[in-house]
Design goal:
There is one protein chain. The chain has 300 residues and is an alpha+beta fold. It folds into three domains: 4-83, Uridine Diphospho-n-acetylenolpyruvylglucosamine Reductase, domain 2 (2-Layer Sandwich), CATH 3.30.43.10; 91-213, Uridine Diphospho-n-acetylenolpyruvylglucosamine Reductase, domain 3; 218-299, Alpha-Beta Complex (Uridine Diphospho-n-acetylenolpyruvylglucosamine Reductase, domain 1), CATH 3.90.78. 28% of the residues lie in helices and 26% in strands. The protein has seven helices and 19 strands. The strands form six sheets. A five-stranded antiparallel beta sheet has the order 6-7-13-11-12. Strands 1-2-5-3 form a four-stranded mixed beta sheet. A four-stranded antiparallel beta sheet has the order 15-18-17-16. Strand 9 and strand 10 (144-145) form a beta hairpin. The longest helix is centred in the C-terminal third of the chain and has 19 residues, at 270-288.
């Protein structure tokens, strides 16, 4: 069997493995077809061995975190999908640092920071996704970004070695890092925080979450902000000014609550989302001369 060695590695570490299963349930968009193999590793060593075997054997592989910023083909994915999620998600304190496995959710990390009275991550409360995914795209909101709090990370290099990179070498910019589009795999992230008051931290986090609930369509599946912020503009305003709020293609819709979100209103397909985003880009460009760029990662 083509994936016997992958199965063997998963068994060796006690990692979960699924065959011919839909990936939709693992994505925030709830879109995506059946994949050959989905593995949920539970250690850095397991990840390293899986990736090494795929590279050695010429097996196509994909690395995802919590799949909150991706749109995956309805045809599914051939090869091995490595989901670095809740099975690899420990968080521990070291002085004023929180050292987090790549699969640790930002919600878990923020709650741990609050309990430990460590400030700096209040802006990230409510951002979906994991430590690894957030660093990969330098996630941010409400005036904060990962680059403001990341100290270092451990990653799997293309050579198969586990290495450490300091923040100054990560090339962190708007929705970009040194890891974006590379063969490097983030394994753990260190956040350098500052001592604070637990009650004040909790208050700021609750305020941030209230803003999200009030302004964003959290009740529907989506991949968050659909388009990157163009220089000098706001994507949501451009979309709304083009009369596209509520615009629908199949089960996909431009949210009536926040035009920057394309939501899965009900059984939206991969093709629905691709079509609606292309329509948005075309109409906004015709009306304003601004070419929007998708923030969500398309995988097919």
């Amino acid at each position: 069997m083509k994936y016997d060695t992958i199965s063997g590695i998963a068994g060796k570490y006690g990692a979960k493995i699924l065959y011919d299963e839909s990936i939709a349930e693992f994505t925030s968009f709830r879109i995506g077809g059946k994949c050959d193999v989905i593995v949920m590793p539970n250690s850095a060593e397991c990840i390293a061995e899986l990736v090494s075997e795929c590279r050695k054997s010429g097996i196509r592989y994909y690395i995802f975190g919590k799949c909150t910023n991706v749109l995956i083909s309805g045809e599914g994915l051939r090869g091995v999908v490595i989901l670095i999620d809740g099975d690899y998600s420990s968080v521990r304190r070291d002085g004023n640092d929180l050292i987090c496995d790549a699969g640790a959710s930002l919600a878990k990390i923020c709650n741990e920071a609050r309990k430990e009275s460590l400030s700096g991550l209040e802006f990230a409360y409510g951002i979906p996704g994991s430590a690894g995914g957030a660093l990969y795209m330098n996630a941010g909101a409400y005036g904060g970004e990962m680059k403001d709090v990341v100290s270092w990370c451990d990653y799997l290099a293309g050579s198969g070695e586990i290495r450490r990179m300091n923040a100054e070498n990560m090339k962190l910019s708007y929705r970009h890092s040194a890891f974006t589009g590379s063969d490097k795999v983030i394994l753990s992230v260190c956040f350098r925080l500052t001592p604070g008051d637990e009650n004040k931290i909790a208050e700021l986090m609750n305020e941030t979450m209230k803003k999200r609930r009030d302004k964003q369509p959290l009740e529907y599946p989506s991949a968050g902000s659909t388009f990157k912020r163009p220089d000098g503009y706001f994507a949501a305003k451009l979309i709304e000014d083009s009369g596209l709020k509520g615009y629908t293609v199949g089960g996909a819709q431009v949210s009536e609550k926040h035009s920057g979100f394309v939501i899965n209103k009900g059984n939206a397909s991969f093709d629905d989302v691709i079509k609606i985003t292309e329509d948005i880009k075309e109409k906004v460009f015709a009306d304003s001369g601004v070419l929007l760029e998708r923030e969500i990662l398309i995988v097919e």
